[in-house]
């Protein structure tokens, strides 16, 4: 889909992009080969320059160039081309304010290996790890995870960033991560029903009592938040390309879910729920 995309070019929105397609253009090469389109010579010249640069950037494997130019709702188009060097990330924190709250754990899935980072243990290693990836996928990460990461580590996350919250919102599918997982029938097993507020309680339990089972439950939950993003990304991509049947694009296949290296301990969850029966208002989406 990316090679059929024009809305990242100067002066081209979704409406103009549709007009380009209607004129018989379906690839950047069509513009470069002189396919006739109903635009002024100046606009055609701009398109030729933009399509040439796009081909160059794609060949150079430069997702950041495209991400800087595509609207958040259209960045799903990047996915098939740049998924070989990608990190699906999720963080857990002590609250919602990056200026006064801490990151407690981070889970990262790169399609091959699950990596986790824990405050007081190896959290500092995440800074070096995240710099390895040219693209990241998150849910609400543009508003939550990345600002937290940048504030906490004092860094700038330079990777192209597909935020699934916006990918699904442009399809009319709204709500938080767990709600969208339920929409697609995804099951969290023993971690079902846990949320961002409960993740705070699990961290507090671990920090105050040293309960390793509480930490493992938190990590099991955090890992699910990360690894589930891959198949959600695939579902989002496939739903989007259904809106463009004229391009005859192949849907992506679902991938096997990796084994969660951590276990959610039901006894710990039930113990905390007895002490905090009313739940809480923490929400990170």
UniProtKB/TrEMBL annotation:
Transmembrane annotation, as ranges: none
Single annotated GO MF: nucleic acid binding
Ranges in coiled-coil conformation: none
Sequence ranges assigned to domain YprB ribonuclease H-like in this UniProt record: 87-234
SUPFAM superfamilies: Ribonuclease H-like (SSF53098)
A Pfam family of this chain: RNase_H_2
Alphabetized PANTHER family for the sequence: EXONUCLEASE-LIKE PROTEIN, YPRB RIBONUCLEASE H-LIKE DOMAIN-CONTAINING PROTEIN
Name of the featured protein: YprB ribonuclease H-like domain-containing protein
Source organism of the structure: Maridesulfovibrio ferrireducens
């Amino acid at each position: 889909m990316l090679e059929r995309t024009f809305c990242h070019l100067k002066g081209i929105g979704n409406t103009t992009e549709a007009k380009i397609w209607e004129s018989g253009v379906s690839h950047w090469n069509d513009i470069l080969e002189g396919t006739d389109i109903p635009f002024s010579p100046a606009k055609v010249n701009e398109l030729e320059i933009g399509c040439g640069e796009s081909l160059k950037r794609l060949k150079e494997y430069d997702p950041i160039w495209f991400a800087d130019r595509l609207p958040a709702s259209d960045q799903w188009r990047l996915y098939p081309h740049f998924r070989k060097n990608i990190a699906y990330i999720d963080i857990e924190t002590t609250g919602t304010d990056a200026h006064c709250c801490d990151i407690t754990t981070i889970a990262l899935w790169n399609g091959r290996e699950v990596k986790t980072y824990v405050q007081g243990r190896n959290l500092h290693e995440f800074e070096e790890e995240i710099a390895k990836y040219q693209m990241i996928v998150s849910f609400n990460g543009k508003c939550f995870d990345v600002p937290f990461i940048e504030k906490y580590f004092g860094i700038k996350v330079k990777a192209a960033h597909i935020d699934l919250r916006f990918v699904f919102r442009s399809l009319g599918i709204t709500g938080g991560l767990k709600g969208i997982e339920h929409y697609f029938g995804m099951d969290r097993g023993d971690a079902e029903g846990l949320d961002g507020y409960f993740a705070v309680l699990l961290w507090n339990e671990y920090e105050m009592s040293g309960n390793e089972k509480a930490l493992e439950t938190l990590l099991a939950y955090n890992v699910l938040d990360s690894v589930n993003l891959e198949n959600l990304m695939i579902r989002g991509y496939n739903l989007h390309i259904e809106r463009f049947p004229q391009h005859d694009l192949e849907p992506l296949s679902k991938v096997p879910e990796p084994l969660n290296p951590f276990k959610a301990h039901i006894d710990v969850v039930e113990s905390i729920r007895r002490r905090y029966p009313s739940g809480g208002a923490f929400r990170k989406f």
